[in-house]
């Protein structure tokens, strides 16, 4: 069975990106994928610097790298901060990039974002894509950027716009098609 892990790049209570992550996770499950939703709060890592790294690698970095290496699909849903990547995601990727489990070279990666601005975080998504590509990741082509966040989901966390739901279906199809998992 094809496996997926999902992560959210915002730890804010009531995060819109967490809402999107849960919706895409549910769609992946409906498509027959075995999904594990990860909470980055369970993978605490200090702000990366090479002095710290020389002393010790946080245990969470190795643990998360192994999750990445084992999954057929990695879904990251993260807001954009200042047209860039959130500090949580930058720090997570910095530590992961120093691990040696082939963590970026097995899965197909899907990226999504919700932002308060009307461009839906696509600038941040692009930065995240560039960084992951540089690390050897294969990325699904769909740019799932949703904005403005206000009114983008109903009370059950379902995207209110048909176009957004179609984009999620397209992303789920791509992730399934490009993954190396058996189905
Ligand atoms: C430090 C910071 C920078 C932000 N920069 C942007 C931005 O560049 N573009 C944008 O559309 N929204 C920006 N926002 C607003 C976020 O889109 C908004 O807070 C969103 O709800 C964050 O996602 P979350 O609900 O998943 O936490 C920024 C918010 C913060 C806290």
Description:
By secondary structure, this protein is of the alpha/beta class. It has a single domain, classed as Rossmann fold, CATH 3.40.50.360. 40% of the residues lie in helices and 17% in strands. It has 6 helices and 8 strands. A hairpin with a 2-residue loop joins β4 and β5. The chain is globular. The site of flavin mononucleotide has 16 residues, from α1 and β4.
Task: Using the 3D structure, state the CATH architecture.
Answer: 3-Layer(aba) Sandwich
What is the ordering of alpha helices and beta strands?
EHEHHEEEHEHEEH
What do the pLDDT scores average to?
Answer: 97
List unreliable stretches of 5+ residues: none
Principal-axes shape call: globular
How many domains? The number is 1
Topology:
Elements: E1 3-8, H1 16-30, E2 34-37, H2 50-55, H3 59-70, E3 73-77, E4 80-81, E5 84-85, H4 87-97, E6 108-114, H5 122-134, E7 138-139, E8 144-146, H6 162-178
Parallel strand pairs: 1-2, 1-3, 3-6, 6-7, 6-8
Antiparallel strand pairs: 4-5
Bound molecules: flavin mononucleotide (FMN).
Compose a concise summary of this entry.
With 183 residues, the chain is α/β, with parallel strands linked by helices. The protein has helices spanning 16-30, 50-55, 59-70, 87-97, 122-134, 162-178, and strands at 3-8, 34-37, 73-77, 80-81, 84-85, 108-114, 138-139, 144-146.
Question: Which keywords apply here?
Answer:
single chain; 183 residues; Rossmann fold; two-stranded antiparallel ribbon; binds flavin mononucleotide
